[in-house]
Amino acid sequence: MFSQTVEYALRAVVYLAADSSQPATTEQLAAVTKVPKAYLSKVLQGLVRAGILHSQRGIGGGMTLVKSPADLTILEVVQAVEPVARIRSCPLGLAWHGEHLCPLHRRMDDALALVEQALGSSTLAEVLAEPSRSKPLWDGDPSLAVVGTIQAALAAAPENEAGCMGLTPPQASSPPTP
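Below the sequence we write its predicted structure tokens.
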């Protein structure tokens, strides 16, 4: 139901919501979200144009959320990238139906309305705070048990010769105990 572009946008904003203390570069976001950098760059530009993200150029720059995670809903992100296409009139163009949807298309539109309602009532802060065995963007590495520590690890990573931040994932000395 949701495109890969929507998925990528949600990954990026969830990451930014997890630790909004400093901007994240496109390179950092691409590495953590596992999205190709060139494609993610286009997605991020769309989120900036939609007013979801703020972009700061230069040293210390990067992407930040415009709103706090408690005020930003999943629906706002989805609508910024690929709006949910509600069915307002007969998709077949049948003049007799007009704006009076047949039972099939009414049910489909009702389902889309439920999706809008569910996503519109869920903020990024709620998603991150929800108790769950699995966390967004966390692969189970015990040293990265909190999504926000990913940001800290990136910030502490040494710069390479090109002046870019590099991240070498921490090596767990032993597997986590259940």
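The first strand starts at residue 53 and ends at 56.
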